[in-house]
Amino acid sequence: MGVLLALFLAERTARIAGLDSQLVWKLCVVTLFAALVSSRLLLIVLNWTELRAHPLWLLTLAMVHHPLLACFGGLFALVVAVLYGRWQRLPLWTTADALAAPLALGLAFEQLGALLAGSGYGTETAVRWAVIYTDPLTGQWSGAPLGIALHPVQGYAALGFLTLSIILLVWLPYRHQPGDAAGLLLLGAGVVVFVTEFWRDSEGRGAVLGGALDGPQLAAVALVVVGGVVLLDRREVVEG
After folding, report:
1. For the chain, does the N or the C end have fewer beta carbons within 10 angstroms?
2. Cα radius of gyration (the chain)
3. CA-CA distance, 144 to 118, in Å (whole number)?
4. H-helix or E-strand containing 174?
5. 219-236 b/e with 16+ CB inside 10 Å = b?
6. CA 70 from centroid of its chain's CA atoms
7. Which residues, in sequence order, are CB contacts of 24 under 8 Å at separation 6+?
8. CA distance linking residue 144 with residue 200, whole number of Å
9. Is residue 16 within 8 Å of 97, Cβ to Cβ?
10. Which residues pair with 133 in a beta bridge?
11. Which of 120, 203, 117 is nearest to 156 (CA)?
């Protein structure tokens, strides 16, 4: 559902940005295919011994969420997107602007999928809206503790990315220069990740500065910095 909605939104944002919506649609399909295939192949390689012992688990690989998979798939998809965009002679920054809101919407649905799968689970809590995982596969594939009330932090992130998507969609026609929407996406995504990490369980997420920050928060700081750089006034620079 998230992929389909993001694709349909990309058609609309492409027209707003003055691009050929069909070319942007093809770019999205190629990029999504690259991200999904690369992340699933990595998952197979890392779990080859277990999958040989349990072949039927191959049918459930699409439900597995992990930050490493998302990072690897995202980086591979970015490379494919840039190469395909160059081949189709799509302007880099304008295309990035058109894809900003759809990407934020896709991230929102990705976090909803993580909530259902138990991946990136939250810390223990007593709030009324807590989630409790009971399926043994959730614990086996995602490491989520079973029978314990946890913060639905993936839902918090989903709301953050959905809000960011709406802001980007509204702001797209009024951006000052090509690349502004992409810069705001990076900055906003960094803020969402940094804040929501405070409610995520820290197991397997790394520790930075003596445990003051975790790995995703360090990456979030980098996103904010890069987003700020992209937002700098560069209207005199010719688009790549």
Report:
1. N
2. 19
3. 6
4. none
5. bbeebbeebeebbeeeee
6. 7
7. 10, 11, 14, 90, 95, 98, 99
8. 11
9. no
10. 146
11. 120
> In whole angstroms, what is the distance from residue 159 CA to residue 147 CA?
25
The token pair at 30 is 């190629």
> Is the per-residue pLDDT at 238 higher than 50?
no
For the chain, what's the residue count? 240
Output the pTM of the full model: 0.84
In the beta sheet, which residues pair with residue 150?
124, 131
C-beta atoms surrounding 120 within 10 Å: 25
CA dihedral 150, 154, 160, 165 (to 10 degrees): -160
Cβ neighbors of 198 (< 8 A, separation 6 or more) are: none
Q: Check: CB of residue 239 under 8 Å from CB of residue 178.
A: yes
Q: Is the dihedral of CA 209, 211, 212, 214 positive or negative?
A: positive
CA dist., res. 138 & res. 115, Å (int): 11
Specify the amino acid at residue 15: R
Amino acid (1-letter code) at residue 160: G
* CA-based nearest residue to 234, from 85, 93, 78: 93
Q: Please check the confidence at residue 64 and state whether its pLDDT lies above 50.
A: yes
| DSSP helix/strand/coil, 126 | coil
